């Protein structure tokens, strides 16, 4: 297995407040890696550091051989890392088609390839094809999540990072979204998945990492982690946040 992403001993925080301490993690090319841990563990903070929204105070974030720690978000995107943030940030007044087009903003791709990219995301999410002209704001929660993922896929990322894609979705929609992640992985896209539905995440993942209070407390093949009590202890042993 070749590592596509290697996070090496990073410290990350907000202002003077430290959150992540000495966190290291590897994501192999072509795998799904699940990152789990209780509320406030630092999962979103880790994704923000990888995507260039937060600058690590220490450590390296090596992607395809290049250290991206401290690089601006646009450079991280150009390198091939796409982050679907918590809460599906869409242009609610714009149509599905326009949101997909906006996913290509600033991308250097030939006009002739754009149609193929639309076709690919519509093949993955047929329901979006039926709603091409609808405003994003009137879609169901599940369709909005699909659109947020599809928007990222328009750039054909090498690494797709998802922050709690199942949040607020009906179980059958969660199944559909996870199914798409498996198809993407099988097509060669590498995935880093933050998920509160831990069992579901570990079902589709190849490998998993467990964060607790800003530190990594466990890692292993997903099937092994699912059976171990590290995951439970991460939830039971965490500091309480309100
Ligand atoms: N913008 C911010 N400014 C200051 N502190 C923040 C900010 N965002 C998060 N934090 C703090 O950083 C810590 C980690 O938060 P983070 O959102 O990364 O956790 P998480 O694992 O994603 O949790 P959740 O499961 O609730 O999404 C928490 O203590 C949180 O209060
Ligand atoms: Mg979070």
Beta-strand segment tally: 10
Mean pLDDT: 94
* Strand line-up across the major sheet: 6-7-8-3-9-10
CATH class of the largest domain: Alpha Beta
Class inferred from helices and paired strands:
alpha/beta
Task: State the shape.
Answer: globular
Report what the structure shows.
By secondary structure, this protein is of the alpha/beta class. It has 2 domains: 1-80 and 157-242, Rossmann fold; 89-156, no CATH class. The protein has 10 helices and 10 strands. The strands form 2 sheets. Strands 6-7-8-3-9-10 form a 6-stranded mixed beta sheet, sandwiched between helices. Strand 9 and strand 10 (215-221) form a beta hairpin. Helix 3 (96-102) packs parallel to helix 6. The longest helix has 16 residues, at 171-186. The protein binds adenosine-5'-triphosphate (ATP) and magnesium ion. The site of magnesium ion (MG) has 4 residues, from helix 1.
């Amino acid at each position: 297995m070749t590592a596509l992403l290697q996070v090496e001993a990073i410290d990350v925080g907000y202002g003077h407040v430290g959150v992540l301490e000495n966190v290291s993690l590897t994501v192999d090319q072509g795998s799904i890696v699940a990152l789990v841990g209780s509320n406030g563990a630092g999962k979103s903070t880790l994704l923000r550091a990888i995507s260039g929204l937060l600058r690590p105070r220490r450590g390296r974030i090596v992607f395809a051989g290049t250290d991206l720690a401290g690089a601006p978000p646009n450079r991280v995107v150009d390198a091939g890392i796409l982050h679907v943030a918590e809460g599906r940030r869409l242009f609610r007044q714009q149509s599905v088609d326009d949101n997909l087009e906006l996913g290509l903003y600033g991308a250097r791709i030939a006009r002739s390839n754009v149609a193929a990219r639309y076709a690919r995301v519509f093949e993955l999410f047929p329901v979006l094809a039926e709603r091409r002209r609808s405003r994003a704001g009137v879609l169901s929660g599940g369709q909005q999540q699909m659109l947020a993922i599809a928007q990222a896929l328009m750039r054909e990322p090498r690494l797709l990072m998802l922050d709690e894609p199942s949040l607020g979705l009906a179980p059958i929609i969660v199944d559909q979204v996870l199914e798409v992640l498996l198809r993407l992985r099988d097509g060669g896209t590498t995935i880093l998945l933050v998920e509160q539905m831990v069992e579901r995440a570990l079902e589709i993942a190849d490998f998993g990492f467990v964060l607790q209070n800003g530190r990594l407390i466990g890692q292993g093949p997903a099937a092994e982690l699912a059976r171990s009590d590290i995951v439970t202890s991460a939830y039971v042993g965490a500091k309480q946040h309100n």
